[in-house]
Automatic annotation (TrEMBL):
Ranges for domain ABC transporter: 4-263
Statement: the UniProt record of this protein carries the keyword Transport: yes
PROSITE patterns reported for this sequence: ABC_TRANSPORTER_1, ABC_TRANSPORTER_2
Top-level taxonomic group: Bacteria
Signal sequence region: none
Protein name: Glycine betaine/L-proline ABC transporter ATP-binding protein
Alphabetic keyword roster: ATP-binding, Nucleotide-binding, Transport
Annotated family: Belongs to the ABC transporter superfamily.
GO MF term (any one): ATP binding
PANTHER family per record: GLYCINE BETAINE/PROLINE BETAINE TRANSPORT SYSTEM ATP-BINDING PROTEIN PROV, GLYCINE BETAINE_PROLINE BETAINE TRANSPORT SYSTEM ATP-BINDING PROTEIN PROV
């Protein structure tokens, strides 16, 4: 079951929004509405986010991703459609109920840190708990624990201007974690950081996710960031979601020419795995040159494509993919790797089984 479910959501700004939604549903284009002073920011968006998943919404500036995010915590109300959080329609909540949900169950991590300069690092991390009315001793304890999780132990009594940009963003992340919210919304949270610090923050988020298994919706315009972080990815263009899938789905089976051009420069060797490119185990019989139990190296389904190519370069037959129990899950012919990477691997060595037999 999805923790967060978005069903046919539209967000229109300007006069006669309901009429604009009707026109969009009948096939009108976004640009056609602008002549009437109407902006369709989000058009018929649908997706689900499972508990413990990092779901990334990516797209260029103006694609509607930040507007979509603000409907996920009720800051904006959909013109049409529903946003369900644990089965509850956020638009059906009263103002007081919605404030309660936002303060206790949904946390937001902003792009520009949003730290209070007159509060210490600990006080900033505890701010969400203060809003909830948590007693001081309890909120300081939880804030200290969250700061430690984010690698800021020892900085609790410092001021924000004493911290680097990356450290300030860690405080923002700690503030979100301290509330123990069920859902984290992250709006371009790392885009203001230098590339090296940005990658460090991505590593930090992935490590935290391995430990805490939060449900996260992460907004970015950076394709490599989306591919690195996302369990699921939605690609937006001109207000519409044009594809939803895993990084492997989007790279291997782009929905249209726009997505294909968007992902053409991604380093597939770092994103794709053997699972995404292998043929089924039943295909092994079609490759007569694939010996059974020859002693050549095999790979696991989650082996990155780069490592898979290194194995392919050492064996004269399709690479065997084995599951955790050692059973053959599939094979990867060299021609398939060539098609994906466009570069013929070097000549392989002799098959280990053949060498042994001839010894």
């Amino acid at each position: 079951m999805s923790r967060l479910q978005v069903e046919h959501v539209f967000k229109v700004f300007g006069p006669r929004p309901d009429e604009a939604v009707r026109r969009l549903q009948e096939g009108a284009e976004r640009d056609a509405l602008r002549a009437d002073g109407t902006t369709a920011a989000v058009i018929d968006a649908s997706f689900g986010v499972a508990p413990g998943e990092i779901f990334v919404v990516m797209g260029l500036s103006g694609s509607g991703k930040s507007t979509l995010l603000r409907m996920l915590n009720g800051l904006l109300t959909p013109t049409a459609g529903r946003v369900l959080f644990d089965g509850q329609d956020l638009a059906a909540l009263g103002e007081r109920e919605l404030r309660q949900v936002r303060s206790t169950r949904i946390s937001m991590v902003f792009q520009h840190f949003a730290l209070f300069p007159h509060r210490s690092v600990r006080e900033n991390a505890a701010y969400g708990l203060e809003v909830q009315g948590v007693p001081r001793a309890e909120r300081e304890r939880r804030a200290t624990e969250a700061l430690e999780l984010c690698g800021l132990a020892g900085w609790e009594d410092s001021w924000p201007d004493e911290l680097s940009g990356g450290m300030q963003q860690r405080v923002g992340l700690a503030r979100a974690l301290a509330t123990d919210a069920d859902l984290l919304l992250m709006d371009e949270s790392f885009s203001a950081l230098d590339p090296l610090i940005r990658r460090d923050m991505q590593d930090q988020l992935l490590e935290l996710q391995r430990r805490l298994r939060k449900t996260i919706v992460f907004i970015t315009h950076d394709l490599n960031e989306a591919m690195r972080l996302g369990d699921g990815i939605a690609v937006m263009r001109d207000g519409r979601i044009v594809q939803v899938g895993t990084a492997e789905d989007i790279l291997s089976r782009p929905a249209d020419d726009y997505v294909a051009s968007f992902v053409q420069d991604v380093d597939r060797s770092r994103v794709l795995t053997a699972r995404a490119v292998m043929t089924g185990a039943e295909e092994q019989g079609r490759h007569a040159q694939t010996p059974s139990g020859c002693g050549c190296p095999s790979v696991a389904p989650d082996t990155p494509l780069g490592e898979l190519c290194a194995v392919s370069a050492r064996v004269p037959h399709p690479v065997v993919v084995r599951d955790a129990d050692g059973r053959v899950a599939g094979v990867v012919p060299r021609q398939r790797l060539v098609g994906l990477l466009g570069d013929e691997p070097r000549a392989p060595l002799a098959c280990a089984g053949a060498v042994t037999a001839g010894a």
